[in-house]
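>> Question from a student workshop board

For tomorrow's exercise we were told to take the sequence and the ligand below, predict the bound structure, and bring the output to class. My setup keeps failing. Could a helper post the expected result so I can at least see what it should look like? The ligand is MRU.
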Amino acid sequence: MIETIRWKSGKLKLIDQTKLPKILKYIICRNKSDVWKAIHTMQVRGAPAIGVVAGFGLAFGTEQIKTKNVNLFYKEFDKIIYYLKTSRPTAKNLSWALERIKNKVIDMGYNNVASIKKAAFDEAIAIYKEDVILCRKLGQLGQKLIKNNVTIMTICNAGALAAVDFGTALSLIYEAKNKGKNLEVYALETRPFLQGARLTSWELKKSGIDVTLISDNMAATVLKTKKVDLIIAGADRIARNGDTANKIGTYGLAILAKFHKVPFYIVAPFSTFDLKLKDGRQIPIEERKAKELTHDFFKQPIAPKGIKVYNPAFDVTDNGLITAIVTERGIIYPPFKENIAKILEK
Ligand code: MRU
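>> Workshop helper replied:
Here is what the output should look like for this input. Compare the format with yours to find the bug.
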């Protein structure tokens, strides 16, 4: 199993995903700035992984707070949360993890700073450990959707490199393989950051899964001319009505799926849901550097110097294009607004 995030003996070790697939290199984060940088530069990426690592960033940050006064401590604590939230805007898991840690330490009601600091670390570690259970659960519950001898298409990377364990969407694939099911995968390269080419095809190939890499603009013809049974994707933020933000290109792929009558599934834990949002229009969409488009993975220019660029990193797939959402609490089918609310009440 690929260990994307390792917490051992007080050390946070991460695979530097900007170096893959050429080099498998680890970095060590020792403080909140290291964590901020790792998330911002996408050395670590993928919604669940971002949440887990941000949790450790907050724990590191609280350790560095000098005051012994609890009120002053909480002021500094909030500043760290604000700072870490600025690392990347779209994945809900980031603010979810930070708010969970904050709520936990407040609930404990400690009146000394040392206990609060320990509680923050304990909660960050709990989030890290729970992610393993979540990934497995998503994989197991999703088996209902995966028959034997199927061909699956996926976009971006929602696998082991995006979480502590098997990932979200790719967890269904790993679990199916463990159960002895035969499957084949088409991975979209995922322009411009190439998570599909660099990460998904790397981790699936390494795990002995039959994976074929295609460029994003080949998806339509593959859906038309080959047998694709289902499409699965992860999510960065899901609104109350099921509208889903995921990697740029997911929306287009969902439209293609509808046209070709191929089921389109989203796989995500509840930490990705943002129930304050009525629909996808309120989801913050990250815009990234022009260089991701104008240069061949930051090296050779592949576009004229000074060209105007628009580079949104995510798009929103309307709930009407989604067949179902696999969560750790069960598979949610349309109508999403009602069924998301129902599953929460359980
Ligand atoms: O920009 P990234 O690589 O962080 O985007 C990742 C995705 O869009 C994933 O599909 C999503 O975070 C789910 S990861 C389990």
